[in-house]
Write a structure and sequence with these properties.
alpha/beta; DNA polymerase, domain 1; two-stranded parallel ribbon; single chain; 14 strands
């Protein structure tokens, strides 16, 4: 019988486990406090738990948090964390400092099955879904690294390897653990952002969870023809269906939907594209992040000239749409948007992106 990893259990499930072992629900709450609030992952160090309870717990459970196999610093201050999973797969998280913010980009799958043409992660294909413990574990591991500086990640974006909504149950469970204000990791939902390539049923389902987290849409094109060539998912859920689902996503009064738009020279970067994008977003509470393409070996795309990127931005700003140019961090270490790729073969060699 395999032992359950307590890192992937909701505080209520930890209470249930304690009761199942003949203890009170209070013992489960203590467990949650040790793991999610105090970052203590050794059962023997949880000194206010009775010894017999700890012994019974050790037979049924483990507290296993991912340990970074490699830490690669970037010249811009970012850090890429590579984790080795059971079974041999590898995933990446990226810590990105920006003034008083420290954003952590986490993965939800090893690899990705959606094969977006401009994304290196898609070249891997899908190896497997991550468990809730592996998703939450990336956050706990990153925060443990930052403890020495008296810091922790202030914002978490589910924009690493994989499609979060394709690993729906583990995603939602990890979001509930991370946002549980009483016994969980206690992040404000407004500081968590879930990105998707546009899985319409998943967007609608997430909207019904009442999690209040931010939604980010990987858009990258303004016509179905171009988007279907860049993102095969568009053949199942076209722009009309996607934008309708986004329009139904529940937002708080000051909340907006983020639209990620990787800029590809002579593919999606014309003034006409910008005007179509403005029309697509009309009536939505939206913010656009323009992401100049991050090169990788074998890519068939190029980054547009700066003047064209700024001209594109200007069209959107003139239409009243908040738009930023997001220069990705970690490009020099293969940690920028669209560059994440890990495999067992890469474990002992330097990364090429």
């Amino acid at each position: 019988m395999s032992r359950v990893n307590l890192v992937g259990l909701l505080p209520a499930e930890l209470e249930d486990l304690a009761v199942g072992l003949g203890a009170s629900r209070y013992r489960g709450r203590q467990l949650a406090t040790w793991i999610f609030r105090k970052s203590v992952f050794d059962l023997e160090a949880m000194t206010d738990l009775p010894k017999d309870f700890r012994a019974a717990l050790a037979e049924r459970a483990v507290v296993e948090v991912l340990e970074p196999e490699r830490l690669t610093p970037s010249q811009d201050g970012s850090q890429k964390l590579v984790f080795a999973l059971h079974g041999g797969s590898r995933i990446s998280s990226v810590l990105m400092p920006d003034d008083d913010r420290m954003t952590l980009c986490v993965s939800t799958q090893a690899g990705c099955g959606f094969a977006c043409a401009f994304c290196l992660t898609g070249v891997m294909g899908l190896e497997r879904n991550l468990t809730a413990a592996e998703i939450v574990g990336q956050v706990l591991a990153a925060n443990r690294l930052l403890e020495g500086e008296g810091r922790r990640a202030t914002h978490i974006v589910f924009m690493g390897m994989g499609e979060p909504l394709a690993n729906y149950a583990a995603l939602v469970k990890s979001l509930r653990i991370l946002t549980d204000a009483k016994l969980g990791v206690a992040y404000s939902p407004r500081r968590l952002t879930v990105s998707t390539v546009g899985l319409v049923p998943g967007i609608e389902k997430l909207g019904r969870e009442d999690l209040k987290v931010n939604l980010a849409i990987s858009l990258h094109a303004t016509t179905d023809d171009v988007r279907s060539r860049l993102m095969p998912v568009n053949r199942s859920f076209d722009l009309a269906a996607l934008m309708a689902a986004v329009g139904r996503y529940p937002l708080a009064s000051r909340q907006r939907v983020f639209f990620e738009y990787v800029m590809l020279e002579d593919v999606n970067d014309t003034a006409d594209d910008a005007r179509r994008l403005a029309r697509l977003l009309r009536g939505l509470k939206a913010k656009v992040n323009l992401i100049p393409f991050n090169d990788w070996e074998g890519a068939k795309f190029r980054r547009p000239p700066l003047a064209r990127i700024l001209s594109f931005q200007s069209v959107l700003l003139d239409a009243g749409i908040t738009t930023t140019v997001r220069w990705s961090k970690g490009e020099d270490i293969g940690a920028a948007c669209g560059q994440l790729r890990e495999s067992p073969a890469l474990a002992s060699v330097s990364e090429s992106g």
